[in-house]
Amino acid sequence: MIRVAVRAEAIDVAAELAAHDAGGHGASASFVGRVRGDGGLTELFLDHHPAMTAAGLTALAEEAARRWTLDASTLIHRVGAMAPGDTIVLVLASSRHRAEALAACEYLIDRLKTDVMLWKRESFADGRVAWVEERGADRARAARWG
Amino acid sequence: MTLDIAYFAWVRERMGMAAETVALPAGIATVGDLVRWLAARDARGARAFAEPGRIRAAVDGAMVGADAPIGDAGEVALFPPVTGG
Asked: Is A108 a residue whose pLDDT tops 80?
């Protein structure tokens, strides 16, 4: 089962895990991404495409299901304005065994960073506002999956 | 032919709008043609598309390269490399 959401409301990790794990999967792997307050960051804003961002998450989950034997996957990405400590993204992947769940979870977050229509803008205490630049390290991690 | 164009992130800010509908002049066949035409159209376009190598595109929801044909697409989205996650 694939569950995908793109939304402005806070992500309740415990509630999402409970919903995801309702089937009592053998092995579930998770990735939780949070806003860091580095360098005096006061706000992180996420821009997105009203249709393509969710479609991109769904396509990723479908590709993961082709590569591994998965019982369930959940991809939830927050958009709009966030503060340090807020959860930006939650990835859950479940399989009968840990190796597939862990690999699928890593694949999903690596490829999400390079394949899905989302853009970060950072605001800092000193008034600076800047769109985040693409990172070569993210491209390299995503490319490992072919 | 008319075409809906949607802009995101700093491309949207530099264009000063999230979307527009344009009447395409003859000879605009690919995404790259469209980006070059927008860059030459006015000062905002020149600023948004000064570096075509930093522009990514999607035609009707599918990510494509600069040489992709526009054809009879309903929407072309133009944006910087993505930075989610």
From this structure: yes
